[in-house]
Amino acid sequence: MRTAGFASIHRPFGALALIAALCTSLSAGAAAPVRAAGDLGAPRGAPIHAVLTSPPHVPTPTNRTYPAKVIVDLEVVEKVMPISEGVNYTFWTFGGTVPGSFIRVRQGDTVEFHLKNHPDSKMPHNIDLHGVTGPGGGAASSFTAPGHESQFTFKALNEGIYVYHCATAPVGMHVANGMYGLILVEPPEGMPKVDHEYYVMQGDFYTTGKYREKGSQPFDMEKAIDEKPTYVLFNGAEGALTGDNALAANVGETVRLYVGNGGPNLVSSFHVIGAIFDQVRYEGGSNVQTNVQTTLIPAGGAAIVKFTAKVPGSYVLVDHSIFRAFNKGALAIMKVNGGEDKAIYSGKELDSVYLGDRAGANLAAVSKAAASAASGTLSLDEQVRAGQALFAGTCSVCHQADGKGLPGVFPPLAQSDFLADLNRVMGVVLHGLNGAVTVNGQQYNSVMPPMTQLTDDEIANILTYVLNSFGNPGGRVSKDDVKKQRAVAPAAATASTH
Amino acid sequence: MTRWATLAIAALCCVSANASEYVSLPGGRFESVLPQGPVPTVSTPVDVKPFRMRNVPVTLAEFESFVNAHPQWRRGSAPALYADARYLLDWSTPTAAGASRLPASPVINVSWFAAAAYCESEDARLPTWIEWEYAAAADESRTDARSDPAWRRRILAWYERPSAAQLDAVGSAPNAYGISDLHGLVWEWVDDFNALFIAGDSRTQGDPDLLKFCGSGALNIIDRDSYAVLMRIALLSSLNGADTTGTLGFRCVKPG
Prior knowledge:
The complex is a heterodimer. Chain A has helices spanning 4-10, 12-31, 171-176, 221-226, 323-327, 363-375, 380-394, 396-399, 422-431, 456-467, 479-487; strands spanning 48-49, 69-84, 87-94, 103-106, 110-117, 128-129, 148-155, 160-165, 180-186, 196-205, 215-216, 231-234, 247-250, 254-263, 268-273, 277-281, 289-292, 294-297, 301-308, 313-319, 331-337, 433-439, 442-448. Chain A is α/β, with parallel strands linked by helices. Chain A starts with a helix and ends in an 11-residue tail after the last helix. The model of chain B is unreliable at 1-18, 198-206 and 211-218 (pLDDT under 50). Chain B has a three-stranded antiparallel beta sheet, with no helix packed on it. The radius of gyration of chain B is 18 Å and the shape is globular. Chain B has seven helices and seven strands; from the N terminus they run αββββααααβααββ. Chain B is 27% helix and 8% strand.
C-alpha cells in the first residue's frame, strides 16, 4: 500500500540510488531474455477464478495442459471459534478457517492474488506465500489495512506444496492466531491420480488458561515466546478431524495427504498410527522417500504423503512427539471402511493376563519360604504359597492361572499325565523343551525356554505348588531333588539347551 | 429549520463534550521502541517538549459538530483524495451518526486528512508518534509502565478481542498524566504515521517495507517485547492518508 515514494521524501539520494540499481538489473535482464525454469510461457485462455476449499478438503485437479491466468480471492477474517469443547479463541484466519483456504494452481500459471481484509478486522494483514519467487513472498505487496484489498501477481515457477502465512509484525502472533495455509503448485502433468486427497495442517497455540480450561481464552504472548504451547492441533481445533469429522477412505483406496505445519514454533513428527507411508515428498520437495513411518515437517514447511488403506479401522494421525498428541490435542482420525484381510492383520488372537517375569504381588511368601528353607523348617504350606506366587509370575502366562494351558498351544499342568515323571518335569523347567510332546493324549509342538532365572529353591516350590493344586494328586519336590536334576545333562533330543 | 437542527446538534455536542479538555504533559527524556539514533539496535533517548493533549479521543458528537460547521468534510463532499469510500460510512446521514450510536463514543472511519483538519479547527494538530507513545507509556499510577508484563497483557487483551459492535463512550480511567483511552478503545492517527518504518540505519534506509516482512520487525525494534506498541505501529504503517477503518479514531495536541 505504501510505496517507496514515502521514503524518497526523506532520503532522496537513497531512493535514487535504489532506482538506479533497479534500472541496471532490469536492463541487464532485458539484454538476455532467458525464460526462468518453470516459466511455461504467457498465460493462455480466459482468466480462471481459483476454487478455494476449506480444510480438510482439497480442490479438484486443474486438469489443464496450458499455463493460465488464475485469479485468487482470499479474505482475512478475525473471528471467535472454539479451539476445544467449551473453549473459545479469537482466531485470525485466511478465508474463515484454520488452516486457511487451500489454493491449487498449476506450474507456470500467472496468479493474480487479491487479499481482502474484512472491514471488521482490527489488524492489518498480509500474505507471504512460500511458493512465490520475489521479496517477502508477496508480503510487501499485500500489506492491507482493515476494510481494504491488495492485489499482486506472481508466476508459479516451482511445483510443490507450499505454506503461506501472514507476515505482518509481530509475525509470530499472527501465525499463532492461525494465519497459515497451503498452496499446491501442480506439476505440468498434474499429480498422479489417487482416490482421496485431504488437507491437514498442524499448529501450536498459546492460551493464558490451561489446556481445556473453559471459557474465552486470550493469546498468551509469554508462553509463545517461551515456546510452551497450550495446544498442538491439527486443523485448528480439538475434534476438527475426529468423531464425525474424521477423514474417510475405503479399503484398497489410495490416500494422499497434504500435510503442512504452520508452527509458529514446533516441528512436527508426523505419523499415522498403523499405516506406513508408501511415498513421502518430504519437505514438499521433489524427492520421494518410500516406506516411511514418521516424517518430519518443519514449521513453515509441508509434505505430501501417500498410503493405501489396506485394513479397515481407525487410523490415528499424531505428532509423534507424543505428549502433544495425548496432552495437547495433536490427534486426528482416518476411518477406513471395508472388509477385513486377516492375512495382513489378524485382529486379536489372544487375550490373557500377563504379570511380568516376577510379578511383585506376593513375593513375601517367596522370601518367607527361602528363610524357612535356610533354617531347615520349610513346611509344605510355605512351599505351596511361595510356589503359587512364583507360578503366577512365571508360568501362568502360558500354562494359565488355572493350570489348564491352551488346547493345542500350551500343554495343561492340571491333572496332567506328564507330571508322573517328576525328574522329566524338573528337566523341562531347568533346560527347556523344544519339539513335540504328548500330554493327556494331545500332541503339542512348541517351545518352552529354560527357566535359568529360577533357583533350585524356587523350582522346588513351584513344582510342589503344581502337585498340590488344580486337582493334582499332591506330592513334594525338594531343593535337593532339583539340584540333582540340574547336574544331569539335558535329556535326549527333545530338550533344548537354549 | 435546518439551521435550528444544526444548532440543536451543536448544543448536544457541547454537553457531551464537556469531558474533553487539553491536559499538560511535562515532556522530558523518552526512549521510544523505534530507534531514534544512527544504530537501530541501540536505544537513543529523545527529548519530548512539553505539550498539551486532549484527555479523550474526539467523539462522534464533536465530529458531527465539525462537519456541520465544515460542509466540505461531510461524507460525499470530502474529495476521494482525502477520504476513502468508507469515510463516515457508519453514519446514518452525512451530518449525523444516528440514534443507534453513543454520541460520546469515539469517531471512527475518519481519514488522516479529516482528522488533521478537525484538529486545525480547534487550533491544534495531530500528535507525533513520539508524543503519542510518550503519553501512552503511562498507566494509572506510573508515567512509564512499559516494562510491566501486566501492562502489556492488558493492552494485548484488547487486540485479541474482535471488534465490538458498539464502541464504549470515551473517558475510561485516566493515566498518570490524566489522559484516557490511549489503549483499549480505538487506534489513533498520528501526524507522522507514514514515517514510522524508516530507520536511521543506512543499511535500511530507502526500504520502508522492511517491517512488513516475516521476522524483520526484530531488526528495527529496540524492545522486542513491546508487542503492544509494535502492533499499533504495524496498523498505522498499513495506512494511507485517505484510508479509514472501523477501529481508528484520533485526538489532538497543542503546544505546551
